[in-house]
Amino acid sequence: MQRRRTVPDGGPRPVPAPAGVTRRRVLRTAGAGAVLLPVVLAGCSSASEQPADDVSDALLAMADAARMDAAVVATAVTADPGLAGRLEPLRAARMEHAAALDQAGGRPPGAAPVPAAPPVADVVAVRDSVDAAVRTAREVVPRASAQQVGLVAEVAACCAAYVAELR
Fold first, then answer.
1. pLDDT in tens, 6-28
2. Quick one: pLDDT band at residue 65, thresholds 50, 70, 90?
3. Cα dist from 22 to 15, 16, 18, 43, 59, whole Å
4. What's the CA gap between 94 and 90, in Å, rounded?
5. Which residues, at least 6 apart from 155, have a Cβ–Cβ distance to it below 8 Å?
6. Residues sharing a CB contact under 8 Å with residue 114, sequence separation 6 or more, in sequence order
7. Contact by Cβ (8 Å): 84, 77
8. 9 Rama sector, left if φ>0, alpha if ψ -120 to 50, beta otherwise
9. How far apart are CA 121 and CA 18, in angstroms?
10. Cβ neighbours for 83, distance < 8 A, ≥ 6 positions apart
């Protein structure tokens, strides 16, 4: 992307975009923002308070789904080792999400169930699985506390970025 700037002699001169900024990255970021807007707005709504146990159960379900996403990624990478560079950061992020969601939901460390690895997975399965996390976040946000909304929105933002990247 080139911008034009007027120089002292009066003529325009192209100014390069900052390093690492590409049209694709800008569009991807804008797409992720569009996906997250309903999540953020739902968090700002004046929805009635739900029981804390209901939100805790939802956070723990999101943690379990994050572990399952990591298992799907591992299966996809096992099937096609060439995907490791592209998918391993997602697997690591989803494991971090699982740990944070466990803590927010009140599950003690090490008490989480270990998901069974899916028999077959590919990039499409990974994308669909992570996209489900974004949809789930939209459902959880209206019932969550402000601190929980921050965590859920962070998880949703990460997942939305990967959904856009994996298209």
1. 555 655 555 455 555 566 665 66
2. very high
3. 14, 11, 9, 31, 35
4. 6
5. 62, 66, 97, 100, 101, 133, 137
6. 67
7. yes
8. alpha
9. 37
10. 76, 77, 123
* Interior angle at CA 75, CA 82 and CA 64, nearest 5: 130
pLDDT number for residue 47: 43
* CA 157 to chain CA centroid, nearest Å: 4
Cα–Cα–Cα angle for 56, 125, 58, rounded to 5 degrees: 5
H or E element that contains 133 = helix 123-140
DSSP 52-79: HHHHHHHHHHHHHHHHHHHHHHHHHHHH
CA distance 135 to 128: 11
- Position 52 confidence tier, pLDDT thresholds 50, 70, 90: low
DSSP state of 50: P
What is the C-alpha to C-alpha distance for residues 144 and 82, in angstroms, rounded to an integer?
39
- How far is the C-alpha of 115 from the C-alpha of 118, rounded, in Å? 9
